[in-house]
Queue: 4 jobs
Job 1
Amino acid sequence: MFNYTLRRILLAIPTLLFIALIIFLLLELSPGDPMAEMPLTIPPEVREQMRLALGLGEPWFVRFYKWLYMFTIVEPSHMLANMTGIESLAVEGQRIISFQTRSPVADIIAQRLPQTLWVVGLSYIFGILIAVPIGVYSAYKQYSWFDQVGTFVSMVGFSLPTFFTGPLLMLIFSVWLGWFPIIYDTTLVVDSFGNFLLQLRQMAMPVFVLTLYNTAQIVRFMRAAMLDNMTQDYVRTARAKGMTERVVVLLHVLRNSMIPVVTVIALGIPTIFTGAIITENIFRVNGLGQLLIIAIYASDFPMVLTLSVVFAILIVAFNLIADLLYAILDPRIRYD
Amino acid sequence: MTDTVSFRAPRNQWWDVWDQFKTHKGALVGSVVFIAILLFCFVGPTLWPYDATYIDIRSRNQGFSLAHPFGTDQLGRDIFARMMKGGQVSLAVGVVAMVLSVFIGTAIGVMAGYFRRIDGLLMRMTDLFLALPLLPLLLVMSMLFRQPLSSAFGVETGMFLLIVVAIAITSWMRTARVVRGDVLALKEREYVLAGRSIGTPPRRLILRHILPNVLSPVMVSATLMLATAIITESALSFLGMGFPPDFPTWGRLVADGVDYLQQYPSRSMLPGVFISLVVLSVNYIGDGLRDALDPRIRGR
């Protein structure tokens, strides 16, 4: 197990390097110019100097190496220094600077992260909490009206794109009923009960949209896993021993069915960050997804590169975690 | 006492598949809805008098009427015609991207499953693609190649090529994995061994004996791919990274309509409903196909 983990982590390093290189080269080929936003009155030689100041004068491999050094050494050290409060931990040197704001990319990401985590993370947790009981009951009473309705709703939730459900909810709850604000106010500071309610109200719609989608996906897996297990021999044995249905379903079947579902949930966690790009854009939640879109529009290469690689790290890490969880939960699986 | 053994006339297995498919109510309704939308988008424009890009500024922002069943937009363009045109683009992108992606996925899956020497390499590549953050990458790609392709092939063809290829090369991985798994199992079967022992070259063994046997997982993943491709295209258009603004696609129409959500809610809801209907019906067709193509379920 330990050897396997180590081997996977070692394998992940070249994978991530390669992904970073692909994205870097893609951006390198891109026709977008970070100086496009500058006034046209700037004389060409000054413009050239500004390009050099942004670090665009050197060949691509030098810049890639520098970015890599900053991403792997400088930025983590600053993060560590911030977390522990020991300033001396931070490595001296240039940090990754956003072309748009001229401030370190990591600081902007750290500012945006809580918004994404709250909205998207909450919807994922809600999704799991709602989906598991529905999936269990649907499978237990297969072909009952509850199951029929449940599978239909999960199919609908799975098929409706978030860029449709988002405006639909806006129309119903903001335009017609006027319950929730259309635009997410990110400057809101929760310091009183009234503001807390306001925060809840503005989070309601984005969380609902994402919860619907997450729930639909997990219900499908949960139901399928339960159905696979319900017909197994050990279930009949448990019933024959005279165990109550409660024990059979909730203790025996559910525990075995959770094995694939837990891995699916783990695999889905990176999409908390990447999949919410559209939802964040609809509701103007200024989280990581919106940050990425704005950065792409503004040709803010360091920001796009850093964000994409962070997403890639999350995906690789949670793939590994899902595989390890599978082995831990299911003793029949051996990796060595 | 005579046993009456009823022999069924031999018939094509696709009839059995169809019989099973018919019993899946969702799949049947899904097919009807899907075909209706196909007809609406591809036959509709030949019968409908208005063009999707015809601007009639005097009759702008009209509500539902007989002349304009879905009303007109802020430039007086007929929304009914724009929905048909937008559907053509969305469906065409979805179908072509699906075919391309399934082709790539099947080719790589069969190669990796059949030839052990390149298995490791191809599967590492698949894992690498699975680790890519796809939506960000798609956005970057559509930003990047927009200009060169538009100038080389014209705006519409260029964007079509770009989006189709971008969706295809970011979505073939699942098909490849499923196909590889099946090919690995099929390769050990006796009929493949028999074929190899009489000297069948790998190319013919793959095309004639292995491919027909992986057809059912490929078809199921093709329907799922179609749904994902349509959603991805619409999402790109919705974010403004797809086709140019004056070129209607369903995703674009939703995005344009959101600006008028308060005054004219139907403008963003209608294309949204159409996208959802197509995706829902395609997913149901996929469900029905999965059951119909599984010989263990069929005939029960």
Note: The two ends of chain A are 6 Å apart (CA to CA).
Job 2
Amino acid sequence: MNLCQICGEEEATIKTIDIVNNVKSERHICEACYNKQGLSQPFSVPNISDFVKLTPTSAQIDLQGLGELVKGLTNPKPEPTVPNIVCENCGNSLEEFHKRGVVGCPADYDLFCEEIEALVSRLHGATEHVGKVPREIEAERARQHRAKQLCADLECAINEERYEEAAGLRDRIAALTHDSDSPLHETSRRDRDEHAG
Amino acid sequence: MLDDRFSSGSGEWLGPNGPDNDVVISTRIRLARNIRGHKMPWRSNQCERQEVEAKLKSGIADSQIIPEGAYWSIDDLSETERRLLVERHLISPELAKGRGSRGVIFAPTENLSIMTNEEDHLRIQGIHRGLQLEETWRVTNQIDSVLESRLPFAVSSRWGYLTACPTNVGTGLRVSVMLHLPVLVHTDQIKKVHTAASRVGLVVRGLYGEGTKASGDFYQISNQVTLGRDEVQILRDVRTMVLKIIEWERGLRKLVMQQDRVTMEDRAWRALGTLQYARKMNSEETMQHLSSVRLGINLEILHDLGQERINDLFLYTQPAHLQVLRGAPSDPEERDISRARLIREWLA
């Protein structure tokens, strides 16, 4: 379960995307915080009762028309806008994945990574495989494991100000990650592409 | 059309003398695998499924893993034949329902079967009599490794083996142990099994796996978790639970025999009498009586009956087997008459 990035207590069910000065930032938050923070109102729009109070004679206002006007702006529970991603390889969409609960091809595991991670975390209580793998993946795993160990050693060396040793460790990590061409804690993109076909 | 081997004898896994066979019928292990670069069967069109099926067939044939096995395309089998293979646990109900470019190859002993284009491209299944988790895993794993050297399986270092449904991702491993639990049911304690299993990430299923109901006091205990635990841990989880359930069932059998022996004797003899003399019997009633007779044999109430005979009857009184043996009585009443006659003859 992803926790709300504001209160840290409730399950995050809404994803907000803010774009300020062409910089995109994402937040995963719960419904209560969404409403509390007034995030449903990106800019200040009075609710309908405020509007009525502000107006000298409410009778002069076409309330129905006003309601329609502000509905889109002040809707307290808008549907979070999740783009409907479609897999180029199999044509399976995120919407269809949600509906059927099955992937259309192996590449969907990368494409719908966030959704699958949330789902398997609930189903299996884990998000990483630890069992049998084919030989080539086993070698890759061993490399990742070694790199992880070296990272820990590097941190230790830096904390203890053993900079010469740290530089050596850094080079060894770079060589390992360069060999595998993959991030340390993630499935490699090369793997993903290969398996997606 | 299937050959006539199915008109006599069950698969080896239903045979006698399996370990812990007073409670455990069989141990089944299934691995789900997919081929890299191809759509999942549900997403593929006929042409794409055909291409995958051809790759799988040639991979299986070249590896010589089931040298005496023939490949059966689902389209070449009648509805009764497909149902018959489901009853023998050689294919899943899902594969039986599908059409076009999917099939199965199985060993003559029926200890091993490989389904193509089911929910996943490949479903490798090993099944052995009694509680044989290690041996069943050894055989199934070996087949998987041989196939892996010939077929490019879809796998990632993070998610493990990539399956159509994320419920199987990771190991792709489903371990199922089929148990006969008549006294846990009789003493109304079967809920205890469900609760205990769910607490450790296991699930209790019916006779034919997912979505099927329990019948004749038979239950399957299976793992649900396939990711984040390796094969050895999963096998250990199932073993621990199954041994606990065996202990409960045996403990209760002992207790009821001490406290209410006559009820158990009455149940076994009454069931045998009904089976020997009834003129009409439906499938559910047959399962119940056979379950009571099986219990009677294990409690040493009934002496002159072999468990093998009863195990065979469990299979041969199923609708498709009955149809293969006795023609095709499509009318349910006719089938019930035919079933009762078969049982009388086999127990005579």
Note: Chain A touches chain B at residues 89-92, 100-106, 109, 116, 119-120, 123-134, 137, 140-141, 144, 186-188, 191-192, 194-197 (CB under 8 Å).
Job 3
Amino acid sequence: MKTNSRNLYLIPYAAWIALFVVAPIVLIVYYSFRDIEGNWSLSNYAHFFTPVYMRMTLSSFWYALLITLFSLLVAYPTAYLLTKAKHKQLWLLLIILPSWVNLLLKAYAFIGLFGTYGFANAFLESVGLGRQQILFTDFSFVFVSVYIFIPFMLLPIFNSLEELNPTLIQAARDLGASPWTTFRRVVFPLTIDGVKSGCQAVFIPALSLFMITRLIAGNRVITLGTAIEQHFLVTQDWGMGATIAVFLVIVMAVIMAVTGRRRRGARG
Amino acid sequence: MTDSTIIRFDKVTLQYDGDDAVLSDVSFEIEHGKFYTLLGPSGCGKTTILRLIAGFIQPTQGDIYLSGRRINDVPANKRQVNTVFQDYALFPHLNVYENVAFGLRIKKMKQAAIDAKVKEALRFVNLTGYENREIREMSGGQRQRVAIARAIVNEPEVLLLDEPLSALDLKLRTEMQVELRELQRRLGITFIFVTHDQEEALAMSDEIFVLNQGRIEQSGTPTDIYDEPINRFVADFIGESNILPAVMVRDYLVEFAGREFECVDGGFHPGENVEIVIRPEDLEITAPGEGKLKIRVDSLLFRGVHYEIVGSDEDGNRWLVHSTRKAKVGDEIGLDFEPEAIHIMRFGESEEDFDKRIEEFTEVGDED
């Protein structure tokens, strides 16, 4: 009787998983084995392992890596300062607030800021550096992506810093550690779980970015995300798009498995 | 200031904006190689003193000296003191060995030297063979020992212990009291131990500082403080006691509970209002009519080693008696005590004046 009612509660959850997680993946895998004519074939995979797609994959990884790295470099110190701040909940809210604004709106806002007659160039001109090409460069692509991903990196790091027992920092100082050594040997190792979750939350979506590549990078950067979008919406080659998607799903699973495996240290 | 002084507080005040002072005008000296206890209720400033010595906070006013050098502006990592924290603060990502080796690695010591020192420190706290254990696999008492080993391996001049026994159960706590005292003797360094447990303080210390509301009320050996508390607060906080208002008829004669009694304290004005303390174990039960006082027994509790008897005399004063003899509730009993059992406390007397008066007027040799 008891187990029956418990199973009853599981139905919505199971239905959700089946409809929105399992079914799409099965469909993607199914399409990846169909060529453009609708025949069963492995040609999509053969095509994927050609230099064109490999270069695209490589550049996707490279940019995702850069975005993750810069997000981490910005988010960790910010999170650290936040935990020390007086009104930390307010500051946290202010940092997270932009993520409530639609991605497209933010992208267009940056077009305005970085454009030839935008605010950034006006500033450069006033300090005597003259107008620069900012939009449609690697710099602007990485900059805007980092801006968009910072809240996702910041939150898990902030949480792990908040959980850190402050007496541990005192203990390290007491044992002779300088502030930097304390950070390197105590604070960072104990917040590594937060860093890992943050990197996962940034790296994986960064691999399949597409909107920003067109609006901010002006299609000079073509990532796997852009390729999927183009195949589904423009070339109508669903099979090829699905193949890239399958590849990304596998990569994500591997990344999650590798970064998530380490056991958590018990708290003192 | 003597040569053996290792820590000196000179009029140290700590105050946060707009709040009452956490410590006000505290001065004391701590000598090398002794076991000190800072004793007081929570919020009295005892942990604050420890944190000032460790360097986690800085005084608002006054100076702190370590080995004759002013250390107000020396950061915690540059001070020759180590702390055993209340929650132990062991590093959860390191095993026992690496926790103990933490301070040595920072000093960039050679691996062989680290090995030898860590082994020795673990042997000192009876944890040989636990090197590769993770912290979460250790019990409370074992973590306690790791925390001590991690501190003493750095050979500090002063070891600060912040209520380190409060998380342990009674039996383990008593064991650790003996071990800590033993450890201090073997190491020969200064221990400064913070506790709110008066029994712990009496059992372990060479010297006790009793603190209240950011001030040192009294300092002295455990027997000094137990036998000659300076005021009501100390008498009440250290052990159980009968405290009664009294009048000094003249030196060595005091009146309370409607009668005059001989006592051993002097240096008072005739007719001065004072308070007297009689410890419950100094009261002896006699047959009614005999003895110096007559009380009616209101309650009786069996405490294992003794009976705890609460009674009241004709004036309504409450009397607490510890006796191995049993009494019946409702019975009248007599109470007898020696003149030495009466300790007299003057209102608002400073510690300096108190010590001077005790030295001058106490005729019975009560130092042992």
Note: The first strand of chain B starts at residue 5 and ends at 14.
Job 4
Amino acid sequence: MQTYDYDLLVIGAGQGGLPAAHMGANLGARVALIESAKVGGT
Amino acid sequence: MLRSAEVMHLVARRAAEFGVEVDGRTRFRMKAAVARKDDIVRGIHRSIHSALEGRSERIDFLRGEARFLNDHEVDTGDQRLSFENAIVATGARRAVPPIPGLDSIDTLDNRSALLLDEVPESLVVIGGGYVGIEFAQMYARFGSRVTLLGRNEQLAPSEDTELADLLADYLREDGIDVRTGASVTAVRADGTSKVVSAQIADESHDFQAKAVLLAAGRVGNTDRLELASAGVTTGKKGFIEVDEQLRTSQPHIWAIGDVKGGWMFTHVATYDGPIAALNAVKHHGKSTDYRIVPRTVFSDPTLASVGLTEAEARDQGIDVTVGSVPVNGARAKAIGERRGKLKAVVDSTNGEILGFHILAPHGDDLVHEAVAAMQSGGTIDRISKSIHVHPTLSEMVKAAARAAK
């Protein structure tokens, strides 16, 4: 079976990406959250 | 910043009404208002970072710009990562329409307009949507001479026409030159000023100002993601098309929030996030339901709404009853806020609430009574028969509900 670095990659740590990453972690996934600018979005 | 505008408005224009005498000149200090806002934002960032640090055993927080290499790998600038599932949450930014001369002048957007040191003496706002309205009123209250140019005949064109037109009247009362049906044809620099030319009812008009704020629509932040490498297709304006489970054209890649277009509100992104995560990690197959998404223009009075407008309901062939009341009552009188109107749109056959439209002080808070009542097909009785505290603004929501009986 193919293995990956992460179960879930979330691109963008704004007000959508943050709860998505937290929920992913709550569900037991190994999560990467990547942001190029400021967290929290605009 | 909106709060700073409100305080400035009350002190500079209305203090005497409430028995408050202000001696001397009232000045607005943009730097101090921006510093206050920055301090609040810093606090929010701190709490976000500490929440992420608390999850570091499960969440790796990485800095960089992700670029898809294929459907299971991204390049982050300094490393290559593989993933089983991905959620794209990159948001949207203001659109730059093809207006001649636009690249020859500096324009403000919703971010840079909150970072200024000084209030511009005059400002032309291009765009009569939510952002344009909010910034036009805020800057007028800071002391700018403001012109608001809306492309449609109605400001906030997706909202109830009567309420949107009332709001336009109130903005004019506040001293804003509101022009609707205005199609911007060109912009240019003129010394230290800028000139915006617009076609209004077949006539060309020039509007001169020290600053121009561009708020004419938004585009998805997808141009640098190389989504095509991952097999994710984008639609018009760079937005990613998704199904009701927030899945893109690539079934293990999801998109949430502004980057998928539609209702671009923070509360929609926050709603989407956990649904996409649940579907990605647990294959839950959960669908979004956007029928009851509240919308708000943070104007004064606030325009807040949920569900269908009267016109939308009638277009769907529904037999509707509309309850409509002006802003009134003991609390509104006591706080000296008498502008606005509330409308309940109800299905005549069964009393189901189809929509609620509020132009009132604190409308952004008032709308939630309707939002809660509309869950699972709620009827207007939920509001009209509930006891409301006197004297509160919420009594007006009940009055509109009773008027729809």
Note: The CA atoms of residues 13 and 39 of chain A lie 5 Å apart.
